[in-house]
Design goal:
Shape: globular
Distance between the termini: 57 Å
Radius of gyration: 19 Å
CATH architecture: 3-Layer(aba) Sandwich
Bound molecules: nicotinamide-adenine-dinucleotide
Strand order of the largest sheet: 1-4-3-2-5-6-7-8
Length: about 280
């Protein structure tokens, strides 16, 4: 299998955030024979990458979609000798790119068994410092991206009677400081998940959400200060961060036949953080 056979597949016209115009050729995209297809957004690194690896391990052909060109190309190089991956450059917040990218995906892969809406950004700031630009940026990627990708993937999901998993956050379950935009976007994703579950459920497509607690990724490095880390250690009954593979296992479970009757649920994968509620650390010791 030579490099590129399993495709690097890019939006033709997508201007990168860096301001470049990216016009790579569309390489030949072929599927792993008889493999089910999963699309994972924001999968070039972090939780999304772990989800992509999990689906691949379970025999899926995985489409890794991301708007970080450099990291996406790193993944393409890393997996160049491995069957069963495609790479799509796309900004989930850009409706034109989403439409074009998913149209090309569906031309090649008409049946989509799993869509994992994982792409997300976090801007943590005191409430009074959150600008409208911050708010829009977070909503555009986290909420609009989830809506747009699901709409665009729907024909493929209906054909396969597939499954949607949206990555929310425990920040959408429990309010906290610094998360005016992020927490609100994640709470909205949880309700969007229920809408999707109800509206697509009778067509055979399930929708659920995973709400991770803190997970050690580039995002966490960016927004979790030393204080936040200590506080999480105190507040989480399991007293540690989750791993990307622990989140990936939950996502895969929700897409698998083992979860065939689970629809419209929000699964907190958080070491008990949500369950602890008002439980003070001092009361646990
Ligand atoms: N890390 C945590 O502690 C944590 C906790 C709860 C929820 N989450 C959620 O998990 C998801 C993954 O987070 P992570 O920690 O792996 O973050 P990360 O920053 O390491 O990875 C996010 C990936 O999404 C991609 N991405 C961002 N914006 C995009 C866009 N507009 N279009 C396409 N791709 C885009 C990035 O390039 C990156 O590859 C996010 O939705 C995040 O909100 C993370």
């Amino acid at each position: 299998m030579h490099k590129g056979e399993f495709l690097a597949f890019y939006s033709y016209f997508a201007p990168l955030r860096a301001g470049l115009t990216f016009t790579t050729s569309s390489l030949n995209m072929s599927s792993t024979p008889s493999a089910k297809v999963a699309i994972v957004t924001g999968a070039a690194r972090g939780i999304g990458l772990a989800v992509a690896l999990k689906f691949h391990t379970e025999g899926y052909h995985v489409i890794i979609l991301d708007n970080d060109k450099e990291t996406l190309q790193e993944r393409e190089t890393q997996f160049s000798g491995t069957q069963g991956y495609s790479f799509v450059f796309c900004d989930v917040a850009n409706p034109v790119q989403v439409q074009s990218s998913f149209q090309k995906i569906l031309e090649q892969f008409p049946a989509i068994y799993a869509l994992v809406n994982n792409a997300g950004i976090a801007i943590f700031k005191p409430a009074e410092q959150v600008t409208f630009e911050d708010w829009n940026a977070v909503m555009s990627t986290n909420l609009n991206g989830t809506f747009l990708c699901t709409q665009a993937a729907l024909p493929g999901l209906l054909q396969a009677k597939g499954s949607i998993v949206n990555i929310a956050s425990i920040s959408g379950v429990r309010a906290s400081t610094l998360r005016m935009a992020y927490g609100t976007s994640k709470a909205a994703i949880m309700h969007l998940t229920k809408q999707q579950a109800v509206e697509y459920g009778n067509k055979g497509v399930r929708a659920n959400a995973v709400a991770p607690g803190p997970v050690e990724t580039e995002m966490a490095k960016l927004v979790h200060s030393a204080d936040i880390r200590t506080s999480y250690g105190d507040a989480i009954p399991l007293a540690r961060y989750g791993s990307t593979t622990e989140i990936a296992d939950a996502v895969y479970f929700l897409c698998s036949p083992a979860a065939a009757y689970i629809n419209g649920q929000i699964l907190a994968v958080d070491g008990g953080f949500d369950a602890a509620g008002v439980g003070l650390p001092s009361l646990r010791s």
